[in-house]
Design a protein that fits this description.
alpha+beta; Aminopeptidase; Immunoglobulin-like; transmembrane helix; M28 family peptidase; membrane; transmembrane
Length: about 750
C-alpha cells in the first residue's frame, strides 16, 4: 500500500530528478557547508606600522616585544631581569605607574609543593570614576632554552600594543597591566600577587589572561568566569566553546587564570594552540610566530578592553543572570539558557521516535530494524573512535622520533589528522556494510539517529555546556526529521536541506578547531565528533523510495571499507615521511644526573637522533660544585617509635636560575616554609611528598624549614639548564633542538 505522499512523488515527473537523487544532493550540501565552516576559522591579515594610531598593529606589537623575546628568560635568570626592566621602561613611557613586587610564591597541588622567588611587574593607570578594575595579564618568564615568543611573548606583545592603541588618557575604570613571573614553574608569580598585592584593586576585577600552547591559528577563549557572556560579542570574530575548560583536566597544562578565577576574579583565558610541536622549544621564537594570529589576538583584546574600561562593572554583574551555554555560530557567540538546551535535548530523540512511528505506519521500516540500526550506530561510533586511536598509536610506536618532546606532536600533523578521519570512516563503513546485510537503509539511519540523539539527550541533562557545539545542530536535525516526514516530498526535501545546514557548519568548524589542538590531544576526537554529528543527522538522509526498507545482501560491499583503510595507511606513511623530511631540527630531551659527592655522571637522552643515541647511557665524571647545605635540628618531638624532627636547611646554589627539589626517603614533609613563607596544605589532603623551589638566587642562602620523620633521610636535587658543565657532554649539530636540557646534581642530607 502506498501513502498519498508516495503517490505524489511518483505521479509528478517534474519532481523526479530531485527526489530520485535527494540523498546525493543532501550529502553535497552537507559537504559544502562543512567546507565553509572549516574555512571560516581564519585569522586577520597583519597590519603594518602604518596602521592608524588607535588600531592594533601586529608589526608594532612585534617591535615592542622583540627585545624581550630575543632570548630565553627563566625565572631567576639575568635575562628575566633584563626583560622586566625593558617592559618597565615601555610601560612607563605609555603612562603607567609601575612597581615591582618581589616575593616568594607558593602553591601545593597533588602532594607536591612549589615555591619560587618571583618578581612581578605591575603597571597601573587609575580610572576617572572606577566601578572596578580591568587587568591585562600574562607572564614574563619562559622555560629554559625557549625564547617564548608565543608562550607568552604573544601576550606581552598584545598587551603593550593594546595599551598604546588605547591612548595615554585615563578612562572610567582602573586599568592594570599585570606581568607575572614564575608561571612556568607552577603559577607562582600570580599566586604571590594574589597573596600580597591584589588587595588594593577596586572590585570587581576583570582579568584578560593571555597565553599560548602553540605558534599559530585563531586565538580561542578557552575559559571564562563571571558575566563574560555579556561582553564576548565586543570582540571581532570571537570563538568560545565551554568544553575547552574540561580539556584542562585532560592535558598537562595550566595557566595563571586558574589562580585568578579561584580568587573570585571575573574574566577570560585566551590562547593560540596550533603548532604545538614548537611549544617550550627553541623554535618558539619570533620567526615562527604567526603574525596573523598576533593581529587577531590583538584585535580581540583591544576591542574588549575598550569596551570594559568604560563599562559600569557593578551593573554588569548585577544584570547578569544564569550563565548561559555558549557556542560559536557563523554570526558570533550564540547564547542559550541551560534549561532550554536540556529540554530541547530531551525532545530530540522524541521527535525522531515520532518520525519512526510515522514511517512504520507507512510500512517503510520496523521497530526491530530500528533497534538493530541503533545498535549498529553505537557500534559504528565506538569503532570509529577506536580505529582512529589505534592508527595514531601505531604511527607513534613505529616512529617515535618524529614527535616533540613536550606535547608529542609531529611538526607536520595535518596528514595524521586527516588519517584520524579516514580511520574513523573505516569503522563506520564496516559497520554500515555489515548492518545492511540485515536491515534496510531507512531502519539503519533512523536507528543511528535515535541512538546518537539519546546519547546527546543524556549529555543535555548532565552537562549541557559540554555539548554546546553538538546539541543545537542535533536538535534542529531531529526537528527537521519529524517535520520533513510529515510534509509532502518537495517541501520535505527543503526542510531536510535546511536542517542539515547547522550540522554541516558544526562539523567543519569543530573539525578545524580540533585540528588546532593537534593530533596528540585530539586523536580519536576528530573521528568521534564527525561520527556523532553525522549520526544525529542521519535520519535526514532517509530517501522516499520503497527500496529504503530492504536489506542489501551483497557481500561485495565488504570491499567498501578497503578504500578508507588504504587512504589511512597512505596518509600515515606519507605523513611520517613528510615530517621526517621537515627542515625543522629534531627535538632531543637531555638529562645529566650527577652524584654530588662523587661526581659520577650518567646521561639520559631521548635518542631521536644518532647524536642522542650515542650519548644516551654514557657515564663520565663531572667537576661540578654541588649546592651547599647547612642543617640545623630545631627540635625533636616523639610521636611514635622513631618520633619526628624539625629541621632548618640553608641551601646555597652557585648557579643562576637553579631549581631545587627536596624529598624524603620515608613519610612526608610537613609544615614546610621557604624563606619564611609557609606552604599551605594540599586541598585534596594528599601528604606532601616533595618541594620544588624555582629561581633560587645565586650564591644566596635559601632557608627551608620542615618536619620529617626522625629516621628519614633527605635528598636535595639541584637542576640547572646548562649541559656543558657536565662531564662527557658532546655538542650536537644544527639538526638537533635541545628541549630544556637539565643537569641534576643530587646531594644526600
Amino acid at each position: 500500500m502506498t501513502t498519498p505522499h508516495e503517490d505524489d512523488a511518483t505521479a509528478r515527473p517534474g519532481l523526479g530528478p530531485l527526489l530520485r537523487h535527494q540523498v546525493p544532493l543532501l550529502l553535497l550540501v552537507l559537504a559544502l557547508v562543512a567546507g565553509l565552516g572549516f574555512a571560516s576559522r581564519g585569522v586577520e591579515a597583519p597590519r603594518g606600522t602604518d596602521a592608524p594610531e588607535d588600531a592594533f598593529s601586529a608589526a608594532r606589537a612585534s617591535e615592542a616585544a622583540a627585545p624581550v623575546v630575543a632570548a630565553p628568560r627563566p625565572v631567576g635568570s639575568a635575562a628575566n631581569d633584563a626583560a622586566r626592566e625593558e617592559l618597565d621602561e615601555q610601560l612607563t613611557e605609555l603612562g603607567f605607574a609601575t612597581s615591582t613586587q618581589e616575593g616568594v610564591g607558593t602553591r601545593v597541588i597533588d602532594g607536591e609543593g612549589a615555591a619560587g622567588f618571583t618578581q612581578n611587574l605591575v603597571g597601573v593607570r587609575p580610572g576617572t570614576d572606577p566601578t572596578g578594575t580591568i587587568v591585562l595579564a600574562t607572564h614574563i618568564d619562559s622555560v629554559p632554552h625557549a625564547p617564548g615568543a608565543a608562550d607568552a611573548g604573544i601576550g606581552l606583545a598584545t598587551i603593550l600594543e593594546t595599551v598604546r592603541a588605547l591612548g595615554p588618557e585615563a578612562r572610567r575604570n582602573d586599568l592594570v597591566v599585570l606581568l607575572v613571573d614564575g608561571e612556568e614553574r607552577g603559577l607562582l608569580g600570580a599566586q604571590a600577587y594574589l597573596d600580597e598585592g591584589a588587595e588594593e584593586l577596586t572590585e570587581p576585577v576583570v582579568v584578560l589572561n593571555h597565553e599560548a600552547r602553540g605558534i599559530s591559528v585563531r586565538p580561542l577563549v578557552t575559559r571564562t568566569s563571571g558575566p563574560m557572556h555579556e561582553v564576548l560579542g565586543s570582540m571581532p570574530h570571537p570563538e568560545y566553546e565551554p568544553f575547552t575548560d574540561a580539556l584542562f583536566e585532560l592535558i598537562p597544562n595550566d595557566t595563571d587564570f586558574t589562580v585568578y578565577r579561584d580568587a573570585g576574579w571575573w574574566g577570560m583565558d585566551m590562547a593560540i594552540i596550533d603548532g604545538a610541536w614548537a611549544y617550550h622549544s627553541p623554535q618558539d621564537d619570533a620567526s615562527h610566530l604567526d603574525q596573523g594570529s598576533l593581529q587577531h589576538y590583538g584585535d580581540m583584546t583591544l576591542a574588549l578592553t575598550d569596551e570594559l574600561v568604560d563599562r559600569d562593572l557593578v551593573a554588569l554583574g548585577e544584570s547578569s543572570g544564569t550563565t548561559p551555554v555558549q557556542t560559536t555560530a557563523p554570526w558570533g557567540i550564540l547564547r542559550l539558557p541551560p534549561v532550554l538546551l536540556t529540554v530541547l535535548g530531551l525532545l530530540g530523540p522524541l521527535a525522531i521516535l515520532a518520525a519512526i512511528l510515522v514511517e512504520r505506519r507507512r510500512g517503510r521500516l520496523t521497530l526491530r530494524g530500528v533497534a538493530l540500526g541503533a545498535v549498529a550506530g553505537l557500534i559504528g561510533l565506538v569503532l570509529a573512535v577506536g580505529a582512529a586511536l589505534l592508527t595514531w598509536q601505531l604511527a607513534t610506536a613505529a616512529t617515535p622520533g618524529m614527535l616533540s618532546q613536550t606535547t608529542r606532536e609531529p611538526v607536520r600533523a595535518e596528514p595524521f589528522l586527516i588519517a584520524d578521519l579516514a580511520a574513523g570512516a573505516v569503522g563506520v563503513a564496516l559497520c554500515w556494510v555489515l548492518a545492511r546485510l540485515l536491515i534496510g537503509r531507512a531502519a539503519l539511519l533512523a536507528g543511528t539517529g535515535m541512538a546518537v540523539s539519546a546519547l546527546l539527550a543524556v549529555l543535555a541533562v548532565l552537562a549541557p555546556a559540554l555539548g554546546s557545539s553538538m546539541l543545537p545542530p542535533a536538535i534542529l536535525a531531529a526537528a527537521g526529521t519529524l517535520v520533513a516526514t510529515l510534509l509532502p516530498p518537495r517541501p520535505g526535501l527543503v526542510v531536510r536541506l535546511l536542517a542539515l545546514l547547522p550540522t554541516g557548519w558544526m562539523l567543519g568548524a569543530q573539525i578545524s578547531s580540533l585540528m588546532d589542538f593537534g593530533i596528540a590531544s585530539s586523536a580519536g576526537a576528530l573521528a568521534g565528533t564527525t561520527a556523532i554529528g553525522l549520526g544525529a543527522a542521519a535520519p535526514l538522509l532517509i530517501g522516499r523510495g520503497r527500496e529504503e526498507g530492504r536489506a542489501a545482501r551483497r557481500p561485495r560491499r565488504l570491499l567498501i571499507p578497503v578504500l578508507p583503510a588504504v587512504l589511512t595507511a597512505a596518509l600515515v606513511a606519507g605523513g611520517t615521511a613528510w615530517t621526517l623530511a621537515s627542515p625543522e631540527p629534531v627535538q632531543e630531551g637531555v638529562v645529566a644526573r650527577i652524584d654530588g659527592s662523587t661526581g659520577m655522571t650518567t646521561w639520559e637522552v631521548s635518542g631521536a637522533t644518532a647524536w642522542g643515541r650515542e650519548l644516551d647511557g654514557t657515564t663520565s665524571s663531572s667537576d661540578v660544585p654541588p649546592p651547599s647545605v647547612e642543617v640545623e635540628d630545631l627540635q625533636s618531638a616523639g610521636t611514635g617509635a622513631d618520633g619526628d624532627r624539625r629541621v632548618r636547611l640553608l641551601i646555597t646554589s652557585p648557579r643562576e636560575a637553579a631549581r631545587l627539589e627536596l624529598t624524603t626517603s620515608a613519610g612526608d614533609l610537613r609544615d614546610v616554609s621557604v624563606d619564611g613563607e609557609p606552604l599551605g596544605a594540599d586541598p585534596s589532603g594528599t601528604p606532601l611528598r616533595r618541594v620544588q623551589i624555582a629561581g633560587a638566587p645565586q650564591d644566596e642562602p635559601v632557608t627551608v624549614e620542615a618536619t620529617v620523620e626522625d629516621a628519614a633521610a633527605l635528598e636535595l636535587v639541584e637542576t640547572t639548564s646548562d649541559p656543558t658543565i657536565a662531564g662527557g657532554w658532546v655538542e650536537p649539530g644544527e639538526e638537533v633542538s635541545l628541549m630544556q636540557p637539565r643537569v641534576q646534581i643530587a646531594v644526600e642530607i
